[in-house]
Amino acid sequence: MRILRPLLMAAAFVAPLSAQDMQRPEGWMVRFDRDGSTEAELESFVEMPPGFHITTGPAGIFYDPGLSASGDFRAELEVFLFDPGTRREAFGIFLGGQGLEGPGQRYTYFLLRNGGEFLIKRREGAETPTVQSWTASGAIKSWSDRGSDASVRNVLAVEARGDRVRFFVNGAEVADLPRTEVPVDGTVGIRVNHALNLHIARIEVTPSM
To answer: Which of 62, 79, 111, 116 is deepest in the core (most CB within 10 A)?
Structure first.
């Protein structure tokens, strides 16, 4: 397997600049969950070194069609969450993307939400079957864990090897599932639910050793 167009960024976050000073990440696409939503409802999806910044209106996925994975691999997403208020909307990584521009879109997604819980689901067209329902994990950093920082950092990783797929948060394994239950070969990208403010420091795919 080859490494496909990773975005390698520094882990530290640089204070935001205005959206007018930035450019949308080249080659990236957006698809919203709700039919009829438009990019005019998206507050920002812009380059912001190191990495890029997403502030959503509607829930959706963000992806570079050239970033994909198959076989034995490890995919990682390093993300910083800014003040979510009282909302517990979810964000994370998706894998196994197929037909993402059509009605039969398919992917597996691994999400976190403020309060220290994770979720694993699949999308199959209009259906979203749950693989693992919301589950608490002490490995997840919540907004309240940020200390004096302006954001809180989490690293999500998915490692596919043979017939198993393992899910990690900040280096701790939180789930180990059969590959037949969580298809992961295909496009890799980001999933963000409603009205969240995130900085994406890094998304990458590397061979699993």
So the answer is: 79
Dump pLDDT digits (tens) for 50-104: 889 999 999 999 999 999 999 999 999 999 999 999 989 999 999 999 999 999 9
What kind and span of H or E run contains 155? strand 152-161
Beta-carbon neighbour count of residue 173 at 10 Å? 13
Q: How many CA atoms lie within 13 A of 205 on its CB side?
A: 26
Give pLDDT tens digits for 13-33: 333 444 444 467 889 999 999
Q: How many CB atoms lie within 10 A of CB 154?
A: 20
Which three-class secondary structure state does DSSP give residue 100? coil
Cβ-based neighbours of 68, under 8 Å, separated by 6 or more? 4, 97, 186, 187, 188, 205
For 44-99, the DSSP string reads: EEEE-SSSEEEE-SS-EEEEEEEEEE-SSEEEEEEEEE---TT---EEEEEEEEES
Q: Cα torsion for 93, 156, 177, 66, to the nearest 10°?
A: 40
pTM above 0.85, yes or no: yes
Query: Domains in the chain, start-ordered, CATH in brackets?
Result: 48-207 (2.60.120.200)
* Backbone φ and ψ of 190, nearest 5°: -120, 140
